[in-house]
Specification:
Layout: E1 5-11, E2 14-21, E3 28-32, H1 44-51, E4 56-60, H2 80-93, E5 99-104, H3 106-117, E6 122-128, H4 145-151, H5 162-177, H6 183-195, E7 226-231, H7 239-248, E8 253-257, H8 266-280
Parallel strand pairs: 3-4, 3-5, 5-6, 6-7, 7-8
Antiparallel strand pairs: 1-2, 2-4
Helix pairs in contact: 1-8, 2-3, 4-5, 5-6
Domain AB hydrolase-1: 27-264
GO molecular function: triacylglycerol lipase activity
Pfam families: Abhydrolase_1 (PF00561)
């Protein structure tokens, strides 16, 4: 099994840890994960499945996660738009003039920003379990009560107690995945996350970030090929969010994953990879 290649991207005082899968000569595909999540939010098996489609798959740690620049908890000095700008930093560092983006959850939000800010650099979008940038319609459904209740305990979490932190993160994954939750697999992934994270509490800096620009109705102006993928049982951003994206972005395609929550189940990896590869090749 081919191991990913590790990369360190630097710009001024910023460091972004990244990994790539596949042949460096294959077309690049940049994966952008969601809030509080490092690159490990993209399962290794999913990245390898994408690479097997003839793509060079690049994933990275957001600020305040994994091996990237990390600030103390509560001291984030950047914005949501800053995270979107990190996408351009990655493309520049990998000397990629134009690439398709795959964003999940907040990563899909950031990918939409990038497509509008730098349309010449974004070839296409795949938006997984995401929401419209600058939604301007009736309220869309949001977080489940169970998830809100779970996050209500965050302020009482003892970050010096590794077992307690692992249990909190594991319960987060269970609530996201629903029927696809595999306790053994997710516990191993949580252990990997904690092993390579300087300050686990800092990942929740993402919850404090502000959007500083007016993006009202912005998603409707996206004009690159777009594939929307959404689980029909998503408890974080329920399906109407994905449907609104697909309806509002001209000519967007919608792929609904049956009996699927806010996650990337192994049973869907091959089908998702085929759809993404087909879009990259313009089929």
């Amino acid at each position: 099994m081919q191991e990913p290649t590790a990369h360190r991207v630097t710009r001024d005082t910023l460091t972004l840890a990244a990994e790539s899968f596949g042949n460096p000569e294959d077309p690049p595909l940049l994966l952008v994960m969601g809030a509080t999540a490092s690159m490990l939010g993209w399962p290794d098996a999913f990245c390898r499945t994408l690479a097997a489609q003839g793509l060079r798959v690049i994933r990275f740690d957001h600020r305040d996660t994994g091996g990237s620049t990390t600030l103390p908890p509560g001291e984030a000095s950047y914005t949501v738009e800053t995270l979107a700008g990190d996408i351009l930093t990655l493309l520049d560092a990998f000397e990629v003039s134009r690439a398709p983006l795959v964003g999940m959850s907040l990563g899909g939000y950031l990918a939409q920003m990038a497509a509008l800010r730098w349309p010449g650099r974004v070839a296409s979008l795949t938006l997984i379990a995401s929401e419209p940038l600058g939604w301007d319609g009736p309220d869309l459904p949001g977080l489940s009560e169970a998830f809100l209740s779970h996050f209500g305990t965050l302020g009482r979490l003892d970050w010096s107690d590794r077992a307690a932190v692992a249990a909190f993160l594991l319960e987060t994954e269970r609530l996201c995945a629903g029927a696809d939750f595999d306790a053994e697999v997710e516990a191993a992934r949580v252990d990997r996350v904690l092993a390579r994270t300087r300050s686990p509490a800092s990942m929740f800096n993402h919850a404090t970030l502000s959007v500083i620009e007016d993006w009202t109705g912005a998603f409707r102006r996206i004009d690159c090929p777009t594939l929307v993928i959404h689980g029909d049982s998503d408890p974080i951003l329920p399906l109407p969010n994905g449907e609104a994206l697909a309806e509002g972005i001209p000519d967007a395609d919608l792929m609904v994953l049956p009996d699927t929550g806010h996650c990337l189940p192994a049973r869907h990896h091959a089908a998702i990879a085929r759809r993404i590869a087909a879009q990259v090749r313009g089929l």
